[in-house]
Structures are given as structure tokens and as C-alpha cells.
Amino acid sequence: MLDTTIIPTTAPDLSGVRQYFPSFEQQINGRPIVFFDNPGGTQVPQQVIEAMGEYMLYANANTHGAFVTSQRTDLIIDEARAAMADLLNCDAGEIVFGPNMTTLAFAVSRAIARDLHAGDEIVVTTLDHDANIAPWRAIAADNELVVRQVDIDPATCTLRMDELRAAITDRTKIVAVGYASNAVGTINDVATIVKWAHEAGALAWIDAVQYAPHGPIDVAALDCDFLTCSAYKFFGPHLGILYGKRERLAALRPYKVRPASDAVPDRFETGTLPHELLAGLLGAVDYLSLIGNVYANAGPEVASGYSGRRRVLKIAMGAILAYERTLSQYLLTALSMVPRSTLYGLKSPTQVDRRVPTVALTIAGTTPRALAEALANAGICAWDGNYYALELMERLGLEPDGALRLGLAHYNTTEEIDRCVQVLNEVARA
Ligand SMILES: Cc1ncc(COP(=O)(O)O)c(C=O)c1O
Fold it and tell me: What's the pLDDT score for residue 13?
């Protein structure tokens, strides 16, 4: 379901983007800081910082007032919705904002549950972050629903698609699946999964939190019913976003206070929105547009199905995808030479089109925490543990320590990978 015309055939040089990220100027123990903790949250460009500051200075107010700052706030909310609609290729009225993906998933799943009945089934997967498992298990427990959890092939950390196909039956009401794994980086064939869900009359819910910073998303082409992401994973502030097909949002009855608007999507946005974060989200989309504009003249055939900012953003995400594949290749090759290490998931540098540059690994004789500490001493930020991919870590036999996670983004470089692998080699040989 990927528009291949937006992926450059030669890897684009994205080194220029680093100038936009002031946080890269930090030094730790005399060396530039390295951010490999991106699956937990990315750094923000100057555009985001400025947009949030400007909101606080010139527009700080509540909504729908007769005065200027309130009107500016209304405008920023509308613009943020339009920007997200351009990024995901949907209507602005299909974008719902919330504090984070998890809160949105709990709230909307509860609204969905109002129309479900005992014995109805939900399909989830072992590969998912718990934010795309726990909300479904919770409504199942409250409403006597059945949850079917689809397993992975532990050798590759890919979904067992035959098992998934068999789990979807005419009793299935929701299929909840991740776009990309936050632990091992696997990209799922979500287009096929959406098709299977719809053939059975079920809703397709995609958790795109980990895919969003790495590649283009087109909810219209995917035809999913719901898709979630979090702005803080794609260079914006800490904010959750839900796409819902207009007719699906209209059919639901969310829990809300009485005087608040009953219009879609407002009725899903309980209480006051984090306006300054919405301004920051606009800054993140501006930053991505800047990348897209560099490549927008690559030829008239590029992203021909889109126009305006949608086209520019698709091109930006295509450039990011192409560059990150070279990072993944470099990383996988370098890690394969670290003594006593085990890499989980798709390991071959030839499989980088099936993964994002997020890898989980362990080194025999030491703990993931000790590895993260050694990296931290060298100024490299990386996570250890289960990162809420609890079912996966249990399936791989890695609980309670989990694994070390190296999660790269388009602003990372091969030099940073070298620095990281050098530390891992030193620990492994010690
Ligand atoms: C795949 C995935 N889904 C959901 C979440 C939860 O996102 P949020 O922090 O916005 O609730 C995360 C957070 O790491 C994630 O990686």
C-alpha cells in the first residue's frame, strides 16, 4: 500500500536537518550527545519550540471567546487538524486530539464497547505495545467479549499471518494491530490485515505510533477505520492523535460532559485541549514540509496522487524512509559483528524494507541495563527493559530484564552508529 514513486532510488542526504535541532548541541562527558532513544520520543526542531513559545506569548487563552487570543487559539486548533489531515491523507474532521495514544485508545475503545455484545471477538497481537492490547482486554473483561491474541514467529519477530487470518471470523468485531513494532522494528502488512478485517465485517484499528516517524501513512489508501499516533514520536510535543473514519466517529457515543459540542470530532475531545502542544504540532509539520520541499521537484511523477502540502509531506516521509533504510543496513551489519550478542527480529541487511531502524539486542554475560549505562557514560541515550512491549518480551523469554533498544531516526548518522557499536564491543569483550 506504499506509493513507491515517493521513495527516492538513491539515498537522500539528510545531514542538513541536524541544524534545526538545538538539543544536538549538548555535550556529555565532552562528546556530542547521541539520541538513540527515539522510539521512546524524538527530539524537536526549532520550529516546534518557537511555535509553542509564540502560542504562550500571543494566543494563550481558552476557545470560542470574542477576543483576539481566543480567536487565535481557535485558528491554531483548526490549523493543527488540517496539518494532521494532510500528513495522514484524510479530512480535518476525522482527526481527534488527546493527551497521548494510550488515553485515546482507552476512551474510544470504551465508546466502541457500548455497541458490542457478550461473545463478540477482538483480535490483538503479541507484537504490539500494551497500549494496543490492554484497552481491548479491559473492554473484553467488562463486556464478556473474547480476545484472540495472534502469535509471532520468534525467529523473525514477524506476525504469524496464517494464524491471524484464521483468528478473524464472522464473530470478530475489531482487529487491533500495530503498523510497526516499538521493540524490534517489524513493519506489519497492515493493508492486508485491514482487508481481512473488513471481509469479516470487523473494524480495523491500527497503532501507527512507531511507524509515523519513519514513513508515509495514507489512511484513505489503507481504508482503516481508526489509526493512532503520537506527535512526540514524530518530532512534535507530547500529544496523542487519533484518525477515525468520519462515519465511524459519527456512529460512536463517547463519554462526555453535557454542554460540550456534540459535533464530530469535538465530542471525543473531553475538556480543554493542550493548545500550546497543538501549536507545536504545527511546527513539526512545518519542519517535515521543509524536508519535502527539498525533494518536491524530483519529477512530475513523484507522489502524483497528491497535491499541495499532502504531496510535500508524502515526499518528505519517502525521503526519510529511503535514508533510514541505509541507516538500518549499516546498523544491522555493524551489530552482527558484536561478540556474544543476540539481535531479535529481522536481522538481515536485505530485509530493511520490512523494518524500521529500531533494534532490540542482548549481550551474554551482561544485562540490558548495564549496556544502557555504558552507552549513557559515552553520551548515548538508549532504552533498556520491555518498553511496554510486554507480551513480546515474555514470548522471547526476555522478562524481567528485557533488551537494549537502539532506535534511530532520520537525524541520526553512521558516525553515531560507529560510536555506539564501539561501546558495545568494548563491553562485550570486557
Ligand atoms: C507502538 C506504540 N503504541 C502506543 C504507545 C503509547 O503511546 P502514548 O505514549 O502516546 O500513549 C507507544 C509508546 O511508546 C508505542 O510505542
Answer: 86
Count of CB atoms situated within 10 Å of the CB of 420: 22
Cα 236 to Cα 109, 173, 265: the distances in Å are 25, 33, 21
The ranges assigned to domains in the chain are 4-44+322-429, 48-284
Cβ of 182 below 6 Å from ligand 1: yes
For the Cβ of 210 lying below 6 angstroms from any atom of ligand 1, the answer is yes
The CATH fold of domain 48-284: Aspartate Aminotransferase; domain 2 (3.40.640)
Q: In whole angstroms, give the CA distance from residue 338 to residue 422.
A: 9
Q: Whose CA is closest to atom 7 on ligand 1? A: 101
| CB of 230 sitting under 6 A from ligand 1 | yes
Does residue 154 have a cis bond before it (omega within 30 degrees)? no
Atom index in ligand 1 nearest the CA of residue 105 equals: 11
CA distance 423 to 163: 40
Give the H/E segment covering residue 414.
helix 414-429
- Asked whether residue 302 carries a pLDDT value surpassing 80, the answer given is no
Whether omega before 265 lies within 30 degrees of 0, making that bond cis, reads yes
Question: Per residue in 154-201, pLDDT tens?
Answer: 999 999 999 999 999 999 999 999 999 999 999 999 999 999 999 999
Model confidence over 37-79: pLDDT tens digits? 999 999 999 999 999 999 999 999 999 999 999 999 999 999 9
Same fold yes or no, 4-44+322-429 and 48-284: no
| Distance of CA 101 from the midpoint of ligand 1 (Å) | 6
Where are the strands (E) in 58-188, listed by range? 95-98, 121-125, 146-150, 152-153, 158-159, 172-178
Question: Three-state DSSP class for 342?
Answer: strand
Looking at domain 4-44+322-429, does it have CATH number 2.40.50.140?
no
* Mutation choice for ligand 1 from 97, 103, 177, 233, CB with most ligand atoms inside 8 A: 233
Query: 100 CB less than 6 Å from ligand 1?
Result: yes
Each residue of 113-148: pLDDT tens digit? 999 999 999 999 999 999 999 999 999 999 999 999
For residue 70, give the C-alpha cell: 481566543
